[in-house]
Amino acid sequence: MGVLSQLSKAQLPADPGRSMIPLIGDTFNIQSPNGNHVCLVTSPARMSLSNAKNGSWISLFQLEVARALAAQLVIAVRFMHSQGFVHGDLHRGNVLLQLSWKFDRLSTEELYEQYGEPVLEPVNRVDGQQIPLGVPQHGISPIWLGDASENITLPEARILLSDFGKTFSPTQEDQFESHTPLLIRPPEARFEPSNPLSFPSDIWTLACTIFDVIAQKSLFEGSFTNDTDMTCQQIDTLGRLPDEWWGKWEAREEKLIEDGETRSRYPSLEDRFEKSVQQARTRKGMPGIQSSEQEALLSMLRRMLSFRPEDRPSAKQILESELMVKWALPEYAKIKECSGIGAT
Questions:
Q1: Domain tally for the chain?
Q2: CA 16 remoteness from chain centre
């Protein structure tokens, strides 16, 4: 609550990143057998980027939408970092699409007509006994406000960051454990466990999330992967580990064919891009990315995915990259023109 409260009250009205943090409309407490629970009231969102891709047969956003989403992700992270906070759990499941301003103007009758009336689900005990006092007799199924990723239009592609449960301030506390999913966990969490995480850890996960938004599949894959497999994927995709990390990787002799190449032979960053972005879009009749934009994108991602955290650019520097200036930010500017959002 404290982090979200500070971010939502930040006195930076001209910063568009401020509009990508949920506002706290109210708070209240619920006393239960498990203790006192502080509840936050925020504006509803439409769906997460994961919901959009999972609800699609092709798992792709239109190119202009993907560009605008990438720009907003960087803007939102830059805003958080400017306020002294690391998000700590950045992935597409924690990036939400905002609802249209028209949603708040719907009457109850119009809401039910457009989305259907609430569906009540009875609450039952497993043992068949009577529900105790204080427990609702019914639950309400969540309403689905989303759509498949390819159907999201540019004006609809406005994001909100969510889930600040792992957010921390590096200047106020030392955080050594990364809580991001293993597939996008920054490598310093494994190879430099005695060094506290900081803003560059968000940059690594931001790069993975941007690739995930632009591509059909994630940059790194695996349902039942482990730390060793992740290191193999990272080496094949990005290149050799820093010298000081080789000695810390116990499986290197077993997994390496030669210096810088593993027995697993995962695809390189360029090969992953060709298969999951260019070929995937061509197969679905969607335009691919031109060579100049591709070079700018891969260059930006490689810098963000530097193994050493100190070699990664800041969010502010990413916004100044060629990819952002020439392609991503102009698409976001079109959204701002429609919605009246302030300048960057």
A1: 1
A2: 17
CATH number, domain at 90? 1.10.510.10
Report pLDDT digits (tens) over 100-110: 888 888 999 99
Q: How many helices (H) and strands (E) does the chain have?
A: 15, 9
The pTM of the full predicted model, rounded to 2 decimals, is 0.89
Return the pLDDT at 142. 83
158-185: per-residue pLDDT in tens? 999 999 989 999 999 999 999 999 999 9
CA distance readout (Å), 231 to 53, 80, 249, 256, 316: 26, 29, 9, 11, 28
Cα Dmax for the chain: 67
Rounded to whole angstroms, the Cα distance separating 258 from 250 reads 15
Q: How far apart are the first and last CA of the chain?
A: 27
Is residue 3 in a domain? no
The parent domain of residue 64 ranges over: 44-102+116-339
- For residue 50, give the nearest of 180, 278, 212, 273 by alpha carbon: 212
Cα 227 to Cα 233: distance, rounded to the nearest angstrom: 10
Per-residue pLDDT band at 323 (split at 50, 70, 90): very high
In a domain, 289, yes or no: yes
Per-residue confidence band for 344, with pLDDT thresholds at 50, 70 and 90: very low
